[in-house]
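User: quick one, sequence for these tokens?
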């Protein structure tokens, strides 16, 4: 089965996570494109969606789902989005499509984050996929120098401007063993809008498209310390 077929299958499986009659959060990317197609075919009633990119907004409008501003909603029960990499703790690298900032905002609001991915996205350690960092244009060179100090090789995504009017530095060669710490650290660099590590707010559910079928996984809970001696 080709990778795109796995994406299509997992996207179709995600439709049953869509709560009928509720506002839906919708991510960005080719897997999400398949999800929007599957949603259209399903007949599930979605009164409105909050979108994370102009690309998804156009596709949602085309299937007749109104896109509303995030400021108009207090809660998003479910957010459905893809990932570039996901590890065993459900921390992710996202932003291959350049929509990481809006994705992170909508993910923060959502009650349940359903990640839809084909099996190639599952990794032991995050970082083989270059980490996208959205940067205010005037800070590009400074932020690149700071990212190099972390051991990565930042490369400007040529000819690309985000929906927010910023640039993306893709950082190659990182081995991200502590995603929560690195996410926070990079976000502290002046000029960084956000970075593509989704660890502080990670996925709750992973639908993984494999050649053997769809795996449905829940985020592993951290081991509890019951104290005692
Ligand atoms: C976009 C993203 C996407 O979810 C990620 O790049 C996966 O894309 P695809 O579904 O095309 O493999 O984070 O900013």
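Assistant:
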């Amino acid at each position: 089965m080709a990778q795109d077929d796995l994406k299509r299958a997992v996207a179709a499986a995600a439709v049953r996570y869509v709560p009928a009659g509720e506002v839906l959060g919708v991510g960005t990317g080719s897997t999400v494109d398949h999800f929007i197609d599957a949603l259209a075919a399903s007949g599930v009633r979605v009164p409105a969606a909050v979108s994370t990119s102009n690309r998804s907004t156009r596709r949602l409008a085309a299937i007749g789902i109104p896109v509303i501003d995030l400021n108009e909603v207090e809660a998003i029960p479910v957010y459905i989005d893809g990932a570039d990499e996901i590890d065993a703790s459900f921390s992710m690298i996202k932003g291959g499509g350049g929509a990481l900032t809006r994705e992170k905002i909508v993910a923060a609001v959502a009650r349940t984050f359903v990640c839809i991915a084909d099996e190639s996205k599952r990794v032991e350690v995050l970082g083989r996929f270059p980490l996208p960092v959205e940067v205010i244009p005037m800070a590009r060179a400074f932020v690149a120098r700071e990212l190099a100090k972390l051991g990565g090789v930042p490369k400007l995504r040529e000819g690309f401007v985000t929906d927010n009017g910023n640039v993306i530095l893709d950082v190659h060669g990182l081995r991200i063993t502590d995603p929560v710490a690195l996410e926070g650290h990079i976000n502290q660099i002046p000029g960084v809008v956000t970075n593509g590590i989704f660890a502080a707010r990670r996925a709750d559910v992973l639908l993984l498209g494999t050649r053997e079928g769809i795996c449905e996984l829940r985020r592993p809970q951290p081991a509890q310390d019951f104290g005692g001696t």
